[in-house]
Each structure stands twice: as C-alpha cells, then as structure tokens.
Design goal:
The chain is α+β, with helices and mostly antiparallel strands. It contains three helices and six strands, in the order H-H-E-E-E-E-E-E-H. Among the domains are: 30 residues, no CATH class; 67 residues, no CATH class.
Length: 180
C-alpha cells in the first residue's frame, strides 16, 4: 500500500510542476539585449591611390605657366609633363609650393577627383648624374711641381725648418734655476 500512496502522490504532484518553456521565450531579450556585441560596419572597398608610386622628377617656372614632370618609382616608362595651363591624360596640377632648397618643392596634383601631394624622390636626388661619373668634388688648388735639374755630383742640402716656440709669452731663453 505504501507504494500505491507514493505513486498517487507523485501523479497528483505532476500537474503542479511547471511546464518546460521553449527557447523562443528569450527571443525578445536576444534581439534587444544591452549586452549584445556590436557588429562592425563594413567600410566600402578603398579605391587604389593613383599617386602611391609617383614623385616629382623636374619642376620649372616659366612666364607661360609652371611645369612639373612626374615619374613612377615602379614603372620607368611612366612620365607625365604637367603644366598649370590644363590637365594632361587626367592629371592636373592644383598647387605648387616652391622652395629655394634643392628637392624641397612640393606639388599637389589631382586625377579623377582624387588629390595627392608629391615631392622629389630623395633616392633619385642622391644618385650620380649619368655621363658625369658621379658628383665631382670641389676643385682644389695644387701648386705646379717644380722641376729642377739635379746637380751633377753634389747632393742638395736637406730642408730644415726653424724652431717654433710653444709659448710665445714665455722668455726665449730657458730658465735653468729651479725654485722651491
């Protein structure tokens, strides 16, 4: 009998147990949770920089308009001769910052709505100029060698340099007395 009483008690209590709820109950919390991980906004694909390998090869001022030559570090055949008069193959000069120092002039150019600031290529400036064999050193003056005929049978006297005083304020004769 005791088994029957336990079975009836358990069966009666089964109706009082809560029903397992589905996971959909938490859907609202998941969608609007203050602890949710923020998703990064995907940036649009960057357009390649048209001037990443370009530098100023030459720059000149003229009464007709300023001119720069741009060249590429990767493509040796690429050269564009730009003037302030108008664009050339889509490239245009927007500004030139002139400098009296060699290689310090800067230029801002544009192409297809993009702008880039260019300067001279330091590596190109330090290269020797072809045909000159490098940078010539400053000329130094050297006297012409004197050619003298050696004397027959006699040896010339060696050149002897005079004595130079170490301390011009001191007396010319050394003092032999020692004071104590």
């Amino acid at each position: 009998m005791s088994g029957l009483v336990i079975g009836v008690t358990c069966f009666a209590r089964a109706d009082d147990l809560p029903v397992k709820l589905g996971f959909d109950r938490y859907k609202g919390i998941l969608e609007h949770s203050p602890f949710a991980v923020a998703t990064a906004v995907v940036a649009p694909a960057a357009t390649p920089n048209f001037a990443k390998d370009l530098y100023i090869a030459n720059a000149a001022k003229s009464p007709d308009g300023d001119m720069i030559t741009i060249a590429s570090m990767t493509d040796r055949d690429f050269k564009k001769y730009l003037t302030t008069k108008g664009p050339v193959d889509g490239y245009a000069i927007t500004n030139i910052e002139w400098s009296d120092d060699v290689g310090k002039t800067k230029a801002t150019i544009s192409k297809d709505g993009q702008y880039a600031s260019l300067g001279f290529n330091e590596a190109e400036l330090s290269k020797p100029i072809p045909g000159r064999g490098g940078v010539a050193p400053a000329p130094t003056f050297q006297p012409a060698p004197s050619f003298q005929r050696p004397m027959q049978g006699a040896t010339p006297a060696p050149h002897v340099r005079g004595v130079i005083q170490r301390n011009p304020q001191a007396p010319a004769t050394p003092n032999s007395s020692v004071e104590e």
